Amino acid sequence: MDERRIEGKWKEWRGRIREKWGKLTDDDVEYVDGKIDRLEGKLQSVYGYTVDQARKAVDEFSKSSK
Fold it and tell me: Is residue 13 within a helix (H) or strand (E), and if so which, with residue range?
């Protein structure tokens, strides 16, 4: 996934991310701030995803949110 794409759409995607991953707090979303690696890390810590699961989830989210 193109990291610039998620950073460019971050304001639009913030609400969608909260809908999809409701366990993420406002502070979590603020911390992510459009950075893919941070989002993947939060999914690992909050949801217990593996590295591969987090990457796949973020990639699928990106593709479905065009």
Answer: helix 10-20
CA distance 4 to 18: 20
Quote the tokens at residue 14: 């913030």
pLDDT of residue 1: 54
Q: Side chain identity at 64, as an amino acid letter?
A: S
| Mean pLDDT computed over every residue of the chain | 88
Q: Report the alpha-carbon angle 28-11-30, nearest 5.
A: 20
pTM attached to this predicted model: 0.85
Largest distance between two CA atoms of the chain:
27
Tally of CB atoms within 10 A around 32 = 22
